[in-house]
TrEMBL record:
This is SapC family protein. It comes from the Bacteria. Pfam families: SapC.
Length: 239
């Protein structure tokens, strides 16, 4: 369930939000949605994979945190063990909403039923004692704007991947030291061979449209699987 409201100081002046990482706040997730405009930051920490939605037949991009549902190998002792958190995670419990008319600028909404909403007086204030946005809220507003823009630009990116048939199915078998095995399936990655086979005109088009860099970043991110496996092994060793 969710309870979305337009954020305003009159109704939410005393609101506080838990900002540290914890499973109880929804951080125990195997993956998070990411947008191409943040791929450069994402690839330095996480593998980027793509998943097709069966209902819409559309692709989305994901940063992987683990190998099983509910497993976040970057989450431990109230801390997020990476230098970058995907924007879709960092903005919670806030989101961009539209006016009831469906027209006009996006508005900052908040989900008052989200577990990050503080009910005990702890956490970071959203508004100060004068009803002005705190630096925390100003940063959230910046992230919301960047994420919203990233989502709007994503459609052209995925259309380009489809046009050049640059996504291929991906399965990864992960044998572990305790004898168990994790299998990742149902995802896609950039098809490097087809990318290499593109002619100069196609590559020029991808570059001029701003798609070539995020494609390269998605490819580069696959090197992070070794680190993800190492985190899994460390989690097993630690019990």
């Amino acid at each position: 369930m969710s309870n979305h409201q337009i954020l305003n100081s009159a109704e939410h002046g005393e609101l506080r939000v838990h900002t540290h990482a914890d499973a109880t706040f929804g951080d125990a997730a195997m993956a998070a949605l990411v947008v191409p405009t943040e791929f450069r930051s994402v690839q330095s920490e996480y593998p980027i994979v793509f998943k097709r939605d069966a209902a819409s037949d559309r692709f989305s991009a994901l940063a992987l945190f683990g190998f099983e549902n509910g497993e976040n190998l970057f989450l431990a002792n109230g801390e997020w063990g990476a230098g970058y958190r995907p924007m879709s995670m960092a903005i919670q419990p806030f989101l961009v909403g539209r006016p009831a008319s469906g027209e006009g600028e996006g508005q900052v909404h908040i989900d008052l039923d989200h577990p990050r909403i503080s009910s005990n007086g702890e956490g970071t204030r959203v508004f100060d004692e004068f009803g002005k946005p705190t630096p925390f809220l100003e940063r959230i507003a910046e992230l919301l704007g960047a994420l919203h823009q990233g989502y709007e630009l994503s459609a052209n990116f995925f259309a380009a991947l489809d046009r050049h048939e640059l996504l291929e199915p991906f399965t990864l078998e992960v044998p572990l030291s305790d004898g168990s095995r994790n299998t990742l399936y149902g995802f896609h990655i950039i098809d490097e061979e087809k990318l290499r086979a593109l002619d100069a005109d196609a590559l020029g088009d991808l570059h001029s449209e701003g798609h070539l860099m995020p494609i390269f970043m998605a490819l580069a991110s696959l090197s992070q699987f070794s680190g993800l496996i190492a985190r899994k092994e460390a989690r097993i060793a630690g019990g």
